[in-house]
Design goal:
The complex is a heterotrimer of chains A (136), B (378) and C (382).
Chain A lengths: L7 E6 L3 H10 L8 E6 L7 H9 L4 E6 L10 H15 L10 E5 L5 H18 L7
Parallel strand pairs in A: 1-2, 1-3, 3-4
Helix pairs in contact in A: 1-4
Chain B lengths: L7 E6 L8 E7 L2 E6 L13 H4 L15 E4 L2 E4 L2 H13 L6 E4 L6 H14 L3 E5 L13 H5 L3 E5 L2 H4 L1 H12 L3 E6 L5 H4 L3 E4 L3 H6 L3 H4 L6 E5 L6 H13 L2 E4 L6 H4 L5 E2 L1 H9 L3 E5 L4 H4 L8 E6 L4 H5 L2 E4 L8 E4 L5 E4 L12 H12 L8
Parallel strand pairs in B: 6-7, 6-14, 7-13, 8-9, 8-11, 9-10, 11-12, 14-15, 15-16
Antiparallel strand pairs in B: 1-2, 2-3, 4-5, 4-16, 17-18
Chain C lengths: L3 E7 L2 H6 L5 H11 L5 E7 L6 E6 L20 H8 L4 E5 L1 H12 L8 E6 L7 H11 L7 E7 L2 E6 L4 E5 H6 L6 H4 L11 E4 L8 E5 L2 H12 L3 E4 L3 H28 L4 H9 L6 H5 L29 H8 L8 H5 L6 H16 L19
Parallel strand pairs in C: 2-4, 4-5, 5-9
Antiparallel strand pairs in C: 1-10, 1-11, 2-3, 6-7, 7-8, 9-10
Helix pairs in contact in C: 3-4
Classes of the chains: A alpha/beta (136), B alpha/beta (378), C alpha/beta (382).
The complex binds flavin-adenine dinucleotide, iron/sulfur cluster (SF4) (4 copies) and FE2/S2 (inorganic) cluster.
Chain lengths: 136, 378, 382
């Protein structure tokens, strides 16, 4: 285990997960400091290239949060993302990136607690895995 | 309904460096539109680097002279061949051979170089040569690519794997077979160094050669190869040759251009200083296929008259008084001698724009006009 | 449509004689050109020798004779030649299964018009790289490769015929064990009969002098019928026995391929350390992308500023090969072209085929065979 703060990047969809983060914030639920959130309009906006780029730029863990299945504001965005996410889980280990460094969840705007809990769990996981060491 | 030449895939040799890789060109209606792997070629088996696959861009018309051009106060105007040749002849006749310089190129075919060299001889021009960086002319047996691949130990000077990837491939294959690879260069790190067992940062090649340590020296034997693509001084070639001879290892100098090794048979191999001196010493300069303004621009100041024969618009062309549009490698037939000494044939694949002529044709026309004999070659 | 099997041979004696089996493929091409049903035939001609297959566009049926026979040392790819240069032409093309798979993926991406195309499939047990073939003939057969006038793969052997008419054969297993023989991708390829083409032609189950044809599409059926009616083909019905033999060989070959898949994609698959060494060699020449028939994009993400942060080599594999993998590995047809052209000998097809296999196991999508685009492209919910 390392003392270095893990760098975690979170992509959160505007309509649900980002709202969840907001709810967590207003309720003063603490989530770990090493987590940086990027707001995107929909999880369907996320493509594998972005996940790869995040790891390349030095992220130790990448999180993607979207609306619950069925609740996507663009109807099918999170279905599309889920297919890509499943694929990513197979691709990352090919580059020696533990699939646990990549996580995706469905979190609604009201689920501040779920957001806080998920981030804490993910943070602990990444912390236990240590910094991502890549030779490139 | 028969439409011919819709699409043809033809064999060629890559003109972009001295390795001599095969490459298939895709020709549609006398236009090169792409490349296709030439897997039957023994040097590269269908593999080409990016520079190699980009070779078709050398033919594109936007960046090449299509007519003889005369430079009048900075603007070029089209001339007919008749006028342009007359101008050349009247100018060159006004100088003594001592005032005339001729620069050829390692990009030209052996056949073009042979004619150029005969032309220089017929005129009595002694200030002639081509740019070979710091490599001297040599005529010794060098390692083959198969030798490289079957070496047990390889010493590399320069970033050879990056700069000549299809020699790099043989080094990689040797390494996969268990060869040990040591590379040396002046940078902090190199791509070749990354792919070597050991990288040595050196101050100068000469110093490195004089102080090769036992950990390298002991491994230089009959199954070892020394590969180098640069020298600081011409004399270092002999040094490397001696090291190789003493240890029984082979050497492979990696030259710059597709026919640098062939050109050494026809024209003196000059380095930057020698070329600059040559240009400085003459009044009339005839450049065939090279772009000396790129590495010796300073020395152009003393020239009265500059003639450049080229298939592309380059720095030297822009400085010229007279420009002859020449065909490029796919528009002619001839041979290139690659860096391992293999002579390979290239064939005419497409026809050049109407007023563009082959080097040989242009030189013969000039000779005819001046009234000199170039021997039996047409 | 339900499959239909027949034996065919060229009526024209010259084609029958020069053809690999019964010259049926060549005769079909001749029929199509003579009757101006197609404007051209894309196939292979022999270049400097039998190791040199050159893609050629034949527009005159008189020239078809030059294209007869199978070249087993010509691992060519026709898919992107059509989509890049010939898509406006009515065309017939001789396709190995991988060519047909590439065409299928390109068709789904609207890169070519399948209606303009007659795909004459050739069964394929694999190809050998030309220079590998020459080396192995020298080494294992102790024969000057220039003395070989014909080669074929039959009953698990690579057989060569010499100028003086003698034959020599070596077990493919033995050759491949020593690193020679068929390309890695061919060893692992489990599509031997191109049922994704209009017809699939081969020698398995055929009588000597005949070509075995499996009809796959209505278009293929109409074509063979017409070629027969116009006097280009002799046709007869294969015996039950020849069907059984063919099926048996196919099954054995598929099993063998699967064994090789298990071996190379799992058991001795390169470790991540090995891959790091491979990626260190990459000179970012884009040859792999440019040759890949599935990588068809006019504007490629790999050229975008976003990923090209420097001209430094080696590139970061995550945003170089990783991006390409994430764009199309699920559609990889394992043609092996990327690996063939990689100047740095990186075993690319291994990682691409492995990813497609993982994807296939999860989603059932078989690249080059399924009619639909991979589910990753789907706008649907599930
Ligand atoms: C590499 C290869 C492997 C094969 N393996 C098998 C096998 O294992 N089992 C089996 O039943 N049949 C196999 N075949 C098919 C068989 O060899 C005959 O091609 C087929 O039976 C048709 O015979 P034909 O006399 O009608 O062909 P022909 O009339 O001789 O016509 C053959 C056509 O195929 C083209 N061609 C030749 N080589 C290639 C190539 N490498 N790629 C694309 N087109 C090419 C020729 O240009 C010609 O147009 C293979 C063919 C090839 C090319
Ligand atoms: S290594 Fe040299 S000869 Fe070979 S493809 Fe590259 S530039 Fe051309
Ligand atoms: S990734 Fe390689 S093996 Fe796969 S389809 Fe593309 S070129 Fe063929
Ligand atoms: S890498 Fe991606 S963007 Fe580039 S050609 Fe291939 S599929 Fe298209
Ligand atoms: S062909 Fe090989 S060296 Fe070239 S970019 Fe692809 S992986 Fe890198
Ligand atoms: S809007 Fe939240 S996942 Fe699509």
């Amino acid at each position: 285990m390392s003392d270095k703060e893990p760098k975690i990047l979170g992509f959160c969809c505007n309509w649900c997960c980002y709202g969840g983060a907001d709810t967590a914030g207003t309720a003063r639920m603490q989530y770990p400091p090493g987590v940086r959130i990027i707001r995107v309009m929909c999880s369907g906006r996320i493509n594998p290239d972005m996940i790869l780029k995040a790891f390349k730029e030095g992220a130790d863990g990448v999180f993607v949060g979207g609306c619950h299945i069925g609740d996507c504001h663009y109807d099918a965005g999170n279905y599309k993302w889920r297919r890509r996410a499943n694929f990513m889980e197979d691709l990352l280990p090919e580059f020696d990136i533990d699939r646990e460094r990549f996580r995706f969840e469905w979190i609604s705007a009201s689920e501040g607690e779920k957001f806080q809990k998920t981030m804490q769990e993910f943070y602990d996981k990444i912390k236990s895995l240590g910094p991502l060491e890549r030779c490139h | 309904m028969k439409v011919h030449d819709k699409m043809k895939v033809v064999h060629s040799i890559c003109p972009q460096c001295s390795v001599g890789c095969g490459i298939n060109l895709i020709n549609i209606d006398n236009r090169l539109v792409g490349t296709y792997p030439y897997k039957r070629h023994p040097i590269n088996e269908g593999k080409n680097c990016k520079k190699g696959r980009d070779c078709i861009e050398l033919v594109f018309e936007e960046n090449r002279p299509k007519n003889p051009l005369v430079n009048k106060n900075g603007t070029f105007s089209d001339y007919s061949w008749e006028e342009a040749l007359d101008l050349f002849v009247s100018k060159i006749k006004s100088y003594t051979p001592q005032d005339i310089g001729i620069i050829g190129s390692g990009n030209s075919t052996n056949e073009d170089l042979e004619i150029l060299s005969k032309f220089a001889d017929a005129l009595g021009v002694e200030k002639k040569g081509f740019y070979a960086e710091n490599f001297p002319a040599f005529n010794i047996e060098t390692a083959t690519l198969d030798d490289v691949q079957s070496s047990n130990f390889i010493l590399i000077v320069g970033d050879v794997i990056k700069e000549s990837p299809l020699i790099g491939r043989r080094i990689i294959l040797a390494r996969e077979n268990g060869a040990e690879v040591v590379s040396a260069d002046s940078a902090d790190k190199t791509f070749t160094g990354l792919n070597s067992d050991k990288y040595i940062k050196i101050r100068s090649i000469g110093e490195f050669l004089d102080n090769i340590g036992p950990e390298v020296h002991n491994k230089l034997k009959d199954s070892a190869t020394i590969i180098f693509n640069k020298l600081d001084l011409k004399e270092e070639f002999e040094k490397i040759q001696n090291i190789a001879e003493d240890s029984g290892s082979k050497i492979l100098p990696v030259l710059k251009q597709c026919n640098t090794r062939g050109a050494m048979r026809f024209l003196p191999a000059l380095n930057q200083e020698e070329i600059s001196r040559l240009i400085n010493d003459v009044k009339f300069l005839y450049v065939v296929g090279d772009n000396p303004a790129l590495y010796a621009e300073e020395s152009f100041k003393n020239l009265d008259f500059l003639v450049t024969q080229s298939s592309s618009i380059n720095e030297t062309v822009l400085l010229s008084d007279l420009v002859f549009p020449a065909s490029c490698w796919v528009e002619k037939t001839g041979t290139f001698t690659n860096t391992t000494g293999d002579m390979q044939k290239i064939s005419k694949t497409i026809s050049a724009p109407a007023e563009v002529l082959e080097d040989q044709r242009i030189i013969s026309k000039i000779a005819e006009k001046i009234g000199i004999e170039l021997g039996d070659k047409k | 449509m339900s499959p239909e099997y027949l034996l065919a041979r060229a009526k024209n004696e010259e084609l029958q004689d020069k053809g690999e089996c019964g010259g049926a493929v060549s005769s079909i091409f001749k029929y199509l050109l003579d009757n101006e049903i197609v404007e051209g035939v894309l196939t292979l001609t022999r270049g400097i020798d039998i190791y040199d297959g050159i893609p050629s566009l034949i527009e005159d049926s008189e020239d078809i004779i030059e294209t007869c026979g199978s070249l087993h040392c010509a691992p060519t790819m026709f898919g992107d030649l059509i989509s890049k240069y010939l898509k406006d032409m009515k065309l017939a093309v001789a396709v190995k299964p991988c060519d047909a798979m590439a065409i299928k993926e390109l068709e789904k991406r609207n890169q070519l018009d399948r209606d303009k195309l007659y795909e004459i499939g050739l069964n394929c047990g694999g190809t050998v790289m030309p220079i590998t073939a020459r080396k192995m003939i020298d080494l294992f057969y102790e024969v000057d490769p220039d003395d070989v006038v014909k080669e074929e793969i039959d009953k698990g052997k690579f057989i060569i015929e010499l100028k003086d008419g003698t034959e020599k054969a070596v077990e493919i297993d033995e050759l491949e064990e020593k690193g020679y023989g068929r390309r890695g991708s061919c060893q692992r390829c489990d599509l031997m009969i191109p049922r994704n083409a209009d017809v699939a032609c081969g020698n398995w189950g055929a009588e000597p002098g005949w070509t075995f044809i499996e009809i796959n599409t209505e278009k293929g059926k109409d074509l063979v019928d017409a070629a027969r009616n116009e006097g280009y083909l002799d046709i007869k019905t294969p015996s039950e026995k020849s069907l059984t033999i063919r099926e048996k060989i196919e099954n054995v070959m598929i099993k063998l391929a699967q064994k090789f898949q298990d071996k190379y994609l799992e058991e001795i698959y390169p470790s991540s350390e090995d891959w790091n060494k491979y990626w260190d060699r990459c000179i970012k020449c884009y040859a792999c992308r440019d040759v890949c028939p599935v990588c068809y994009c006019k504007e490629c993400a790999l050229d975008k500023e976003f990923y090209v942060d420097s001209e430094q080599i080696p590139p970061d594999p995550l945003t170089f090969q990783g991006v390409r993998l994430s764009h199309m590995s699920f559609s990889c047809i394992n043609c092996g072209q990327c690996q063939d052209v990689c100047p740095m000998e990186i075993p690319l097809a291994l990682i691409y085929q492995r990813m497609q296999k993982k994807y296939k196991d999860k989603t059932g999508f078989i690249a080059g065979v399924n009619e639909e685009l991979p589910p990753l492209y789907s706008p649907e919910k599930d």
